[in-house]
Amino acid sequence: MADIAERAAVSRMTVSLALRNHPKISESTQVRVKEAAKELGYVPNPYLSVYGSHIRSAKQKKLQAQIAFLGYERIRETPNLSPSVMTLPEAIYFGAAQQCQRLGYGIERVLLDKNDISEKRMDQILMSRGILGVLLHRNFYEGKDWDLSWEKFSVAAIGSSNVPSAFHSVDCDRQEGMMRLLNEIHCLGYKRIGFAILEQQDKHQRHTNRSAVSDYQLQIPEKRRVPHLIEAQLTKKTFLQWVHKHRADVVIGGVAKMYDWLLEGGWNVPKQIGFVRPQLMPEQSSFSGICYDHTAIGAAGIDAIVGQINRNERGYSQQTRRILVSGEWQEGSSTRLMSKGRKRPVFHLA
User: Fold this and answer.
1) E-strand spans in 146-292?
2) Domains, in order of start, for the chain
3) Which of 69, 135, 179, 191 is found 20 to 30 A from 243 (Cα to Cα)?
């Protein structure tokens, strides 16, 4: 540190702050210090960083800072709620709140109203509450295009479909999840796998589920391939006609009510036809499909923000990171074993 200070003609304190991108140090000084550090072959000592974090946590200081959770959905007080009865936003918030507590941060829920609050007022609210980091819930940009003073905050977003590409984000690994789902129903012995989804859902998912199903179809005989059903508006009549025409023996349904449509159409699930969901909600424990830990997604969002705070990174990033959280197969009761023994999976997954 002393050598860098001498080479850059600054104090040791300035070197320490400059290497951590502290806003009090001018950009030109930061560049000069970092160039000097590079010339001298300096690299941070990770053990000292871990030790410093341990000392800070051991002292049990008051909360370091506040992180805001911005979204449109109302969230109940969650500490006494079971994850099985939480809504998706509640599970994400609960995971974020737990991680904030573990890391010594506070969390503020900020309920948005696209009609009753200006961007200037929202900036004032966040600054007055001492907010350093902002976690954007998945529907943040669905209400309006918020143009806040992002340069004042470390930001991460839940989801990625409506999020500016300059923000770090955390999302479900839908493609890997769909590949896992396809492996499971293939191993159960289903041969004619149908995929039905709304156009808006397909767009929101950036076509990841559809691409995984299309990839699977390339690996099976053409006569067993069921055309996708992707419509702007899906009706029960259209859905049932598609199932009947293409003789699907299992449906990957993007909408939960498709299960009811099958029952109303006279099918016995799972005896006559299987039904699976690509992304199960907490309350859908009876369905077969992929279950994502949304509390882990919320926690990962906080990790992304705290990392930026520690590096003094704020606002838009020149090189964003997207964290994907894997899902797990939930057996449920809407599928069954179709053959005497399980088949070998199609996709090789960890």
Assistant:
1) 154-158, 168-172, 193-198, 229-231, 250-253, 274-280, 288-292
2) 2-44 (1.10.260.40), 66-173+294-327 (3.40.50.2300), 174-291 (3.40.50.2300)
3) 179
